[in-house]
Amino acid sequence: MVDEKYLQKLIKNVSALRKKVSHSPIDPNECVVTYMATKRKSFVGMKSGYAEQLFRIENGIKESEKIRANCKDYLKIFRNRQGDVLQIEKYANGRIDCLFQSYRGESLFCLFPFSANGGFYPTYSYVTVYEGEKIIEEYMVDGDQIVYECYSNETETSVDYEFVNYVNGGKAPILEQRTGVFGFAPLRYENKMR
């Protein structure tokens, strides 16, 4: 069951936080840099949950220390010495399209978009919510739209999954909705009737 008020609250919170967070230049010389060829797949590399992990496996997408010279669509990921993501640069057709800078809260990790020169960039902001070490929610917000994922009831063998693509104020606010279960060893997904 979709809790529209909760989704509206998340949209409002992310929008308010995005307005507060400003671009902060990083020193690439102080970072560990890795790459991820995106293979022209949208939204890859910005989340960490089981849906993202399975998508990467199914599409052969991995993070690496180098990128092929002829690769035109990729992410350049900057981490501090402790391994925390500071910034992700997104390249399309060999040119930097936009960059995402990280923000950490008490139990959340966010990636906010900026243009290559640090100005506003109109695309999704990404949020990952943790409970201890486990990811319990991930969502992407752009304007009045939220693409929301929830992981619950995790055991050693599986975790329940909910997905909602919602537009606040839309004629049909729920664009897509599904529930399912991720199984482990190997990671797999089974959709439930919706």
Report on the architecture of this protein.
It is a single chain. The chain is mainly β. The chain has helices at 4-20, 50-59, and strands at 32-37, 63-64, 74-79, 85-92, 95-104, 108-114, 125-131, 134-142, 145-152, 158-167, 174-183, 188-192. A twelve-stranded antiparallel β-sheet has the order 2-1-3-4-5-6-7-8-9-10-11-12, sandwiched between helices. Strand 11 (174-183) and strand 12 form a beta hairpin. The longest helix has 17 residues, at 4-20. It is globular. It starts with a helix and ends with a strand.
Helix and strand pattern: HEHEEEEEEEEEEE
Structural class: mainly beta
- Beta-strand level of the residues, as a percent range? over 45%
Q: Rounded to an integer, what's the Rg over CA atoms?
A: 17 Å
Helix count equals: 2
Strand order of the largest sheet: 2-1-3-4-5-6-7-8-9-10-11-12
Tertiary shape: globular
Are there runs of 5+ residues with pLDDT below 50, and where? none
Major sheet details: 12 strands, antiparallel
Mean pLDDT across the residues is 94
Percent helix range: 10-25%
Number of strands: 12
Ends apart, CA distance between termini: 10 Å
